[in-house]
Specification:
Blueprint lengths: L1 E5 L9 H15 L3 E5 L10 E5 L5 E2 L2 E2 H5 L3 E5 L16 E5 L2 H9 L4 E3 L16 E6 L5 H8 L3 H17 L5 H5 L9 H26 L5 E4 L5 H4 L4 E3 L5 H9 L1 E6 L11 H7 L3 E5 L2 H6 L6 E3 L7 H9 L2 H18 L2 H19 L4
Parallel strand pairs: 1-2, 1-3, 3-6, 6-7, 7-8, 9-10, 9-12, 10-11, 12-13, 13-14
Antiparallel strand pairs: 4-5
Length: 366
């Protein structure tokens, strides 16, 4: 097939979008397809379909690329789709790819065509047993007090946000979008208001879960790579902040780390890239669990933790740091799974299947 990968937003999210674009291009080429980076109008004309990370396609005047060319476009949404400004986009040629099954359900409830497919990672060809760090966390954290303070700018929504926040903290999860829409505080609200409330709670709970996990570790140093704005976390004696890294630099970081802490960003049934990249590059990943991760990473491949039993986290870390044989076995187990199911090549093979379906469907209304 002739495939176009939309580029131009490569610096977004610490440069991760650019890395993902390059890996997708290389994977499609490995599979024998004609693929090129597309950033201007003439690039798209001869393509069978296009794909973009978190992108809906470029516009020709008031017409989107996929409607102008009458070709399928796949928008791979790498965060919660409720955060995206897509309510105005209506097209028979647009398909979304989500990295969480709950996100796919949100899109279906909004009348969008979508597929479920978590991100991939590239194979790690090296081996680094000279580990520089015992425990690493890669990611940022806003101040929870600062987030709540910002809500006061919206007095009509403030009480609803506090009530919903408290309920989410109790469960350590955000209710499914359909359930939220039936809550009293959401009923009779416009889509934009629902979106605002949902996005704010998603923002708060993501930071809250990170803070709870970091606070639960008391006997080990934690090396944090990312912007931290929470003063209480910054004041902890066992926290060492190194500042932000580019996405490319996290590959080397994870290769030099024995343990990488992962806090999945409010995914109910899915995964993002961090646990995949860390495990493939030789770190044991400590992560909160969900059904998708449990089903796909069996045989001691990941170290799962439970928010209700975080007091055991220090002991679990000791178990890995004091037993190199176990650590190396877990890395091997996770790599075997990743290299079978989670490489970019495997992901792009599945996207070709999506495209074949979309192209056959497109023929009916051309």
């Amino acid at each position: 097939m002739k495939i176009g990968v939309l580029v131009g937003n490569d610096e977004m999210v610490y440069g991760s979008v650019g890395v993902f674009n390059n890996e997708i291009i290389n994977a499609f080429k490995e599979l024998g397809h004609d693929v090129k980076a597309c950033c201007k109008r003439e690039d798209f004309y001869d393509r069978d379909f296009t794909i973009g990370i978190g992108s809906f396609g470029y516009f020709f005047g008031d017409t989107s690329t996929f409607d102008y060319l009458k070709k399928p476009h796949f928008a791979w949404i790498i965060d919660n789709p409720i955060e995206c400004n897509f309510s105005y986009v209506k097209s028979d040629y647009l398909y979304y790819i989500t990295i969480d099954m709950e996100h796919q359900m949100i899109l279906e409830q909004l009348g969008k065509k979508s597929f479920f497919l978590p991100l991939g990672t590239k194979k790690y060809s090296g081996e680094n047993e000279n580990k520089e760090y015992d425990v690493v966390f890669s990611g940022g954290m806003e101040s929870l007090d600062g987030i709540e303070k910002s809500w006061k700018e919206y007095p009509k929504a403030y009480d609803a946000l506090i009530k919903l926040k408290d309920a989410c903290i109790e469960d350590m999860s955000i209710p499914p979008y359909a359930k939220i829409c039936n809550m009293d505080i959401f009923k009779n609200q416009s889509f934009e208001v629902r979106k605002f409330l949902y996005a704010q709670i998603n923002r708060y709970l993501r930071c809250y879960k990170r803070k709870v996990v970091l606070n639960s570790i008391k006997t080990h140093e934690i090396h944090i790579f990312g912007p931290i704005r929470d003063e209480q976390i910054l004041s902890k004696d066992n926290i060492i902040c190194h500042g932000s890294l580019s996405y490319n630099d996290t590959y080397e970081l994870f290769a030099k780390s024995k343990i990488v802490l992962n806090v999945t960003p409010n995914f109910m049934q899915g995964s993002h890239d961090r646990e995949l990249v860390a495990a493939e590059h030789g770190a044991v990943v400590f992560t909160d669990e969900n059904r998708y991760l449990r089903d796909n990473f069996k045989n001691n491949a990941l170290m799962f933790y439970d928010y209700k039993r975080l007091n055991w986290l220090d002991k679990k870390i000791d178990k890995i740091l004091l037993n190199d044989e176990l650590r190396i076995e877990m890395v091997k187990n996770s790599r075997n799974i990743i290299e079978q199911k989670f490489t970019w090549t495997e992901k792009c093979r599945q996207i070709i299947e999506f495209a074949e379906y979309a192209l056959s469907y497109t023929k009916w209304f051309l």
